[in-house]
Amino acid sequence: MPTNIKSRTQGDSVARTRRVVPLAMIVGLTVAAASACQERPAAAPSALEQVTTIADAADRPFGLFGSTLYVSSSDAEVSVRAYRMPDGAPQWSATLPVPARQVTVREAGQGLVLVNADRTALALDAATGALRWRSEGAVLGWAVGGASVVTLDPDADPMTLTGWRTSDGARLWTETVGAGDEYGLGYGAAGHGAGGRGIDSVAVVGRADGATRIRDAATGDLTEGRVRPPGDGGRVAVVDDLLLVSSVDGALGATAGYDTRGLHRRWAVDGAFHRAAGCGPVLCLGGNGVRAVDPATGADRWANVDIAFATPALPGRDPGPLLSDRDPTGATGPVVLNADTGVEIMRLGPWSVLGPDTPRLMLIRHAGSTGPDRIAVADLDQATVRELGTVPAVTPTCAERDTTSPGCPRPPGVPSQCRPGLGWLVCSHVDGDLRVWRYGR
Q1: Kind and range of the H or E element at 373?
Q2: For the segment 218-249, what is each residue's pLDDT rounded down to a tens digit?
Q3: Residues linked to residue 438 through DSSP beta bridges, in sequence order
Q4: Are 57 and 67 in contact (CB under 8 A)?
Q5: At residue 167, what are phi and psi to the nearest 5 degrees?
Q6: How many helices (H) and strands (E) does the chain have?
Q7: DSSP characters for 338-377?
Q8: Can you tell me the distance from the alpha carbon of 225 to that of 228, in angstroms, rounded to the nearest whole number?
Q9: pLDDT of 100-109, one tens digit each?
Q10: What is the CATH number of domain 12-43+72-351?
Q11: CA gap 405, 414 in Å, rounded
Q12: Dmax (CA) of the chain
């Protein structure tokens, strides 16, 4: 281990303008019942119990993965501390001589912790905090199965995507993204720390000529060919076995879906997309609202112009319901939808989503800077909301404050400064404490 690394172990169609809602009467009753739940959660004794307080962690970025909490800080050098959950026992701390303004920490499997320090990737031993390897570039995620780590170096000329072998940091493959190119990432079923998915492919498409290269993120295997050029303003995305290319020609633009293996065009539809995601039995395309299409044919299944986008509410549960984005204006809260039909299952109203606790969602309702904030769970199978109790005021999210504030990652929009675990909750509070709460499951 390099001598300048200090580590110590402690303890052990977008064009659609209307929403198709079948079974309207049943839906109305469902939504009404759910609304009643959200406005009047079932009264019950508090199911929240404070377990411990993490010292010297005020307003510092933190991540909760499995049974380990990671707290980081940055300035002239990067510091990472690991704690065992839920008792908060210190495990190790590491100081890395890398200047950084923003730091995020994720577990990558194979006994590694990945630290993203601005545009430097650092791989630490998960048991001790010792530095295993480092590379230039911001961490985008890792391949399904954890075989490689994918980074992006936007300062390189041309911009560079690279796959690094997780075990030792050896370079496996490199893909350049020229000034006339668009790129997209394809996600698989498991492994990506932030979203529960791993990267399975990387696609680069030329805006002008449609020249296409798709890399297998784990092996670097390459598929080459040509597709319809996206042109200026077009988008590229990979969802499961589909390469999606949108163009903005004409009033509405167009989207084409290609098989990732042979780059044969599977379908083409009117309307460009801005975001795309696999939504169980359908493909979700975001533009003017969300549009759900059949991934095999491109045929429309349903559309909703009242929400910005939707993604699976419970990653890893397939099929499962969808969760809409919260309206950035705050006018409407998240909505839970049936993936097959687009029918609303329940509205979450003033509650914000902290994260999944299958088959439920952990929720928080902020009461301002003085608090207390309310914690609840939404059972998506029963379409009910049950309040667990209250906690002292939680630190405002980056979406609610100036993103230049210390500890605010970019882009903003972190759901809340609380992270749910397996029966516990870690929250950063405005009084400066980082507290661990146990809740009844």
Answers
A1: strand 373-379
A2: 999 999 999 988 887 889 999 989 999 998 87
A3: 49, 424
A4: no
A5: -65, -35
A6: 1, 37
A7: -TTT--EEEE-TT-EEEEEETTEEEEEE---TT-PEEEEE
A8: 11
A9: 888 888 887 7
A10: 2.130.10
A11: 14
A12: 69
